[in-house]
Task: structure prediction
Amino acid sequence: MSTEDEGFKTTEAYVEFGSREARGVSPTYERLSAAVADDDELIALLDGLPPAKRQPNLLFGVVRWLGGPVEDPAAFYDYTVANWPAIEAQLRVRATQTNEAGRCAVLLPVLAALPQPLALLEVGASAGLCLYPDRYAYRYGEHQVGSGEPVLECAADGLVPPARVPEVVWRAGLDLNPLDVTDPDDVSWLDALIWPEHAHRRARLRAAAAVAAADPPLLVRGDLVDDLPALAAQAPAGATLVVFHTSVLYQVPAPRREAFVRLVRGLPGHWVANEAPEVLPYEGLPEPPEEGLHNVLALDGTPLAWARGHGQAVTWFG
Result:
């Protein structure tokens, strides 16, 4: 979903979120999205915010973080209207930083195939939980890779899973507002962004946060264009630099997104992108395997696979 000023329609955004992202994944958010889309009062409140702050994920996460109800649309309406000043204040200062370690299961086949060892640099890193693909374990059907916790499950089609995890010698993240897994407030925000029914993702968050807290990554507060070259230059010689991002660029206005693509193409090493096809378009893509939102996994601008948003499935075509 685009969050650029031009042409952003709040009602359509909630309809699309419910029908494309939440359907079959979160009945609670599917139901809630439809209710908000149909409520003129809530839409009017949201339309008083900048487009990037009207996102369903952000609204629902803020209400959950403040202790409000999301299971019942009527209760959600009552709470949101009654507490709008507090909700609006949080919407203006927070962002959807869903730091889903499960996405590493989609990235792993690409990372494992690159020249080792790797220097990982994640753009839009949040708390950096996706910077540890070498520390997690993976299960692709009956095939297990690696050891440790959490174990990331991924339904893989058309893919021979890698035999081993990559070797990572340097890990760094760039974010406008990096989060700290040792800060209970930051972790509670990450928890609030997890969809209500997803207890397995909450357990995964706790396990991944423990990994990051034991060996914190280098997290830099900065812009994906202005500050990327300096951070990339810190990668150690002798390691393959990999700049990657997952479900991040939809929050970046189109001109800035284009500037980032030009920049990252000129850096040494490799670029791994995992973004929605309307955000980072490619020519000649095959049809996605099913309804629902799929990202396109790409290496150096070449699309390789369709991937579900939380890393739960990947369909290889490259």
